[in-house]
Amino acid sequence: MSTVLQHPTHSPDPEATAFARKAYDRLAGRYDLLELPMEWLAFRRWRRRLWGRVKGPRVLEIGVGTGKNIPFYPAGVAVTAIDLSPRMLERARRRAARYPDRTIELLEMDAQTLHFPDNTFDEAAATFVFCSVPDPVLGLKEALRVTKPSGRLHLLEHMRVHPERIGRWMDRLDPLIYRLTGVHIARRTVDNVQRAGWVLEEVTDLAPGGLVRHIVARKPQP
Ligand SMILES: C[S@@+](CC[C@H](N)C(=O)[O-])C[C@H]1O[C@@H](n2cnc3c(N)ncnc32)[C@H](O)[C@@H]1O
């Protein structure tokens, strides 16, 4: 394993990063309740689908939030899970304590500047995270850097839909929704994954128009 750290090509925007942290710190107490209907309707099924594909032995979860993926972590996999928001992480810690048989390390960290050496993890995963990471390409490049060659990235993300007319409306509404919630609704996440250097393996539309997609990508061999 190489221990040489390749620094990102540019630094994250401190103001936007502080804004995202504050938005999720504020939301942390209500997050699980607000998400409950969608969790039961679809998210649980989609989480199971994503984590059913993840292989270890060492996995990075980016943006663990309150730890909703923890029940779906595959047996025998050691997960290092990071998040920007201390309040979200507090809840993830409580959830992780209910699964003493799992190997889970929870760390406060920015996805845009990961404090891990190159090629640390076998695979990386994130669910509903790159809509709020201020610079998603930087975060995805960092995920690429810390994943081993041929390792996979597994994402569940909501994003700009395929139909152009609706997509343009999402573009118009995006700045307002972002100011109110810290979430971007019109990100082109599939393009961003490729721009960061990942090779797409599968993109599956889970919701109409590709509003939510399951993306599997691979780190190319050097
Ligand atoms: C919508 S929540 C999703 C949480 C969890 N993955 C889930 O599926 O419920 C987005 C999470 O991404 C985290 N996040 C946003 N920007 C981040 C960054 N730059 N680095 C690490 N985590 C970040 C937020 O703090 C929040 O916990």
Structure in words:
42% of the residues are buried. α1 runs parallel beside α2 and α3 crosses α5. This protein is of the alpha/beta class and 222 residues long. The protein has a single domain, classed as Vaccinia Virus protein VP39 (Rossmann fold). A 7-stranded mixed beta sheet has the order 3-2-1-4-5-7-6, sandwiched between helices.
The sequence of SSEs as H and E is HEEHEEHEHHEE
The CATH homologous superfamily corresponds to Vaccinia Virus protein VP39
Put simply, the count of helices is 5
- Could you say how many structural domains there are in total? 1
| Gyration radius, rounded | 16 Å
Main sheet specs: 7 strands, mixed
**Helix content bin:** 25-40%
**Which ligands does the model contain, each kind named once?**
S-adenosylmethionine
**CATH hierarchy, class:** Alpha Beta
- Spatially, the strands of the biggest sheet line up as 3-2-1-4-5-7-6
CATH architecture: 3-Layer(aba) Sandwich
Outline: globular
